[in-house]
Amino acid sequence: MDYLIFSFSLMLVYIGLAQLLHIQFGMAGIPNFGVVGFWGLGLYGTGVLYLTYDVPLFIAIAMASLLSAAAGYVLALLVLQRSGQAVLAATLALSAIIATLIVSEKDITGGVQGLGTIKFPFGDMDGRNIVFMVFILIVVIALVWLSAKLRDSRMGRQLVAIRDNEELAASLGKNTASTKRWVFAVTCGMMGVLGGMSAPLHQFLVPYQLAPSLTFAVWIALVLGGKGHNLGATVGVFVTFGLFDILIETYAPVPAEQAILLPNFKLFCYGLVLIMIIMFRPRGMLGEDKPRVRARPAQAQGVPRET
Amino acid sequence: MRLEAQNLTKAYHAHEVVNIKNVTFGSGGLEGLIGPNGAGKSTLMGLLTRRIAPTSGDIQLDVGNGVHKLNPLKSHEVARIGLIKTNQRIQGFDSLTIKDSLRLAATPPKDEGFASLFAKERDSDEIEAKVAQLVEAFPFTDRNGYAMSGGEKKLVDILRCLIAEPKLFLMDEPTAGLPDDITRMVMDMVRQKVANGEMRVVVVEHDLPMIWEYCDYVHFLSEGSILFDGTPEEVKSNRVVAEKYMGV
Questions:
Q1: Which residues of B touch A226 (CB under 8 A)?
Q2: Range of the domain at A205
Q3: Which of A43, A155, A207, B59 is 20 to 30 Å from B211 by CA-CA measure?
Q4: How many residue pairs bridge chain A and chain B with CB atoms within 8 Å of each other?
Q5: DSSP string of chain A?
Q6: Structural domain contains residue A255
Q7: Which pLDDT score, from 0 to 100, does residue B248 have?
Q8: CB contact A161 to B (< 8 Å)
Q9: Nearest chain B Cα to A145, which residue?
Q10: For the segment B7-30, what is each residue's pLDDT rounded down to a tens digit?
């Protein structure tokens, strides 16, 4: 049971990360391949603050997310106005740098020996892992709700315009560089929040948690679900992580000698489904959704009377 | 209203595309900029709006609230002062409907921050009315949908700039890709706005009859420099222009 709660909590974190990537890549067109880096700054930042400096958990999460946001802002300042490939390479490189620093700065992070133990909040309460899962659920629902608000807002419209044709948006007076930078910093900060919340889930932090496989898992989920749809992240994570990591790996009656092949089989299926999606439904399972804006009263719709 | 460039040059490697001692736009209502292919018209437009960085020279814009030096500014800052240019080649936002594209252009950037997530209405009645007025004025296939043809996209490009209410409006070949009747509707609307004192206009065009009909003043650009300025009659009767451009 505890394992199931852990898996569900982790799945919620993945949904949150994919949702933020939907804002970064789906709406604003920023290919962030360093998801794990911003998440990891939140994770380790929270761990270090909580264990070494005795900062209360939630304050540690908030401080660590500010660190993620700051890293996002600085990176954005350096590379966001370059081409997509440059952004992709730079974000990937940043996450590798963060992972390396966590191994090498062992006085702070514990290096490969790891860092622990980060306890759940709420003291000795029974079922505190369930309460914490509900807490993550609330945060993730808030993220989904916020990105729907963003989609329907003037800012979301500007992001779409920047994604479609940044030069044109700038020629109409939009400060595209600044908008992208702030959106990137804020969403990276939120990735840090999810990282911080993952700290008590993992309890013990080790550098291999910062392997790029997390980034790829989130990307695959988002592309499968639909990068331009507000629920694409949720659906994508359900059919990848939910289906394989939780349902099949834990509950499918697979004989032990074949069970060892499951992770490879999973990667095989991911690859296959990804190819099918890219060939037959390039916009993902859900496709794209459009802003939902309240219909205007008839008077405002028509031509204003000439005076 | 005065957009002035001095000693403006632009060279690609050793090849000088634009070399202008002095040129002033915006004093003559609706102005034309004509010249043969490769004269540097589009480059000059790009330089003025800071889309292209000049090799040397100063550009300054006076819109009535002091003189702005454009050289250190970025493209969006130039647009915010009130200098906006349409695009010669078709540009657009593929994911935005015609109306959304216009609403975007009509919305001041300060209203597009994070606070807009929690705004009750996405667009004010005022913006909706402006958008509706412009869209109803032209025969779009689907007024609530996307721009279908190249012509519609070009028209949306022009309307998008108009709704942003520029003080000095640069039109780069408005007739290219637009049907004749639509061009006339656009130019009549532009002429009306100029007459109302809402803005000044510079049109870059190859369609000379249109230039003679609509423009109050014409600049002739050839091989990167301004060879002649004057009223349409003066330009028409100028021998240099005739030889270099009209081939008579």
A1: none
A2: 2-210
A3: B59
A4: 116
A5: -HHHHHHHHHHHHHHHHHHHHIIIIIIT------HHHHHHHHHHHHHHHHHHS---HHHHHHHHHHHHHHHHHHHHHHHTTS-HHHHHHHHHHHHHHHHHHHHH-HHHH-GGG-B--PPPSSTT-TTHHHHHHHHHHHHHHHHHHHHHHHHTSHHHHHHHHHHH-HHHHHHTT--HHHHHHHHHHHHHHHHHHHHHHHHHHHSSB-GGGGSTHHHHHHHHHHHHH-TTSTTHHHHHHIIIIIIIIIIIIIIS---HHHHTTHHHHHHHHHHHHHHHHHHH-TT-SS-------PPPPHHHHSPPPP-
A6: no
A7: 53
A8: yes
A9: B117
A10: 999 998 888 889 988 888 988 889
